[in-house]
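Changelog entry: the Reverse transcriptase record was regenerated in this release. Current contents:
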Amino acid sequence: MRFSCVPWPVIHRALRRKGFPTYIRRILDSYLSDRVISYIGRDDRRYEKPMEAEVPQGSVVGPILWSISFDNILNIDNEDDNCTIICYADDTLIVVTGPDLLYTRVRACILANRVTDCINRLGLAVATEKTEATLFHGRRTGNLPSQIVIKDVSIDLSASIKYLGIYIDTKWLFSDHFRYIEDKADRVIKALNRLMPNLRGPDERRRRLFANAILSIILYGAPVWADELNRSQLLTSLNRLERSVAQRVISAYRTVSVNAAFLLARMPPLQFLAPMRKRTYEQVKKLKNDGDYTKARKDEIKETEHLRMCGVWRDYLEKPNQPMEYTKMAIMPWFEMWMARGHGSMSFHLSQLMTGHGCFAKFLHRIGKRTTRDCDFCGEEDDALHTLRECLA
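Regenerated structure tokens:
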């Protein structure tokens, strides 16, 4: 279904039912009448077909008329306190609760069929092959129903459903969603990595656009699932993806540790980013509900939560036994300035100095690429500090 595919007679009846003034209805009737589609047939001749639905693509009128026509569906559940219908654009979610599984299943079948009939009366069709259903239940249950029936079509009850881009499972653990975003982000990362080699590739500013695109995929819907992320076994896999993005941003070797890559790229880990997004969302939502929302208040909340998140991240980085000696020594004394800097950029060679992972004898010896740790020029142990501060070569 699309915003613009409601038949015009249905729109006209909805406008009349909602009590729109006559002159408004006449304006819309004039806007929607006497329209044709012109096209070239297979015989290279021009044909015209009168329109009975649709509005010009990109017109704001389309979503408005859709909402007016579709609003009648939301009133179906008013007859039962145990039922709720939620519509967002053309995604319709039916929520049914009940004291036992059999009752809930029967009520779900009845309400789903009523909603389908109402949608059909609008001149639209429900794609039953795309319809999903799931059952939320407690731990102690008997035989669980396996299907619901909509218009003689059996819909299997699955372990999770996708609604507005988020997979919701029966235990609210979001494991299926984390697997989904892991797979999706991984495919995007592999496609974009070829465009950004460490040498002679784009600078950090352009690489950060790549990072933001990936983070927008991973953090989509974070206010919903943020609390479950730290308890998920998939957090390690998601951090591994974010690490690969951070390494690309700073043009670093793949051997650079998670914490070092995140710190140099100024990309906080997901376990800190997701809760920050949730807190920000909840506070902004409260402002809107209270009628106190302004852009300045929103920006203030975002800045406060960002500083709070940076403080938590700093405490985490300063814990002992973190594998990022060179990076901590260079960055942590000036952590706030580093996070807020608006100048300079990381490069392939600078990342080697800041991490110790590069063309240094100590590092090459550790990964089996060199037999000794000695500097070729002075014979001392060759690492990043030696190259930067001690060796005269």
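The chain has a mean pLDDT of 87.
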